Amino acid sequence: MKAIIFDMDGVIVDTEYLDFQLQSVYIKSIAKNPEELSHEDFSSLVGRTGRDLYDRIIALSHTQHPFEEVTLALEAIAQEKYRKEMVEKLFRKDVLKIIAFAKEQGILLGLASSSAMKDILSVLSSHDLVAQFDLIVTGEDFTASKPHPEIYLHSLEKLGVTANQTIVIEDSPSGIAAAKAAGLTVIAYEEKRMQVDQSAADYIMPDMQHIYMKVKDLASKV
């Protein structure tokens, strides 16, 4: 194993579920028939970004709110979930064990997130982790978002490693699909609060401690 690439939301910090809750409230507020929307409907938003997320919101709400208006609402949601107090509360501290292990073993660390760079840096800075990563990539820099593999293919190129030398830690169906499409081995952080299909991952682990143990196990086999 030469590299580990992390997703951020739903992996390093438990913001995916908060995003799900806040987006659900927003969609209900604009939907024509909010009482008809289900937990499964809202779960279909998980991991979506940009135009893909907008299209899904419009489909669920049966409205024609402009892209710019919805984007402003989503930016307000992002400001809420990335507040310093919220990040501190939702940060998964066991990830520090994986980072420390990688550094001890000379394993490169990457982060490939669909979130804005300012939000990525805010989360990592909360625990002085920016300098620990050899590569930080934001979905803002790519035309195609996850599940397209572009962000992971780019990360492999920049890290100078191959797919079979690298593992990815993901959570959302779109993120898992993106990593698998890039030929990567994927460990998924198990999510049971939302109806998401993580079955495409190579391994599904219930928490970061179990992911840490799996990373050590995989590293020992190389």
TrEMBL record:
Gene3D superfamilies: HAD superfamily/HAD-like (3.40.50.1000), Putative phosphatase, domain 2 (1.10.150.240). The keyword Metal-binding applies. GO terms for molecular function: hydrolase activity; metal ion binding. SUPFAM superfamilies: HAD-like. The keyword Kinase does not apply. It comes from the Bacteria. Its cofactor is Mg(2+). Keywords: Hydrolase, Magnesium, Metal-binding. Belongs to the HAD-like hydrolase superfamily. CbbY/CbbZ/Gph/YieH family. This is HAD family hydrolase.
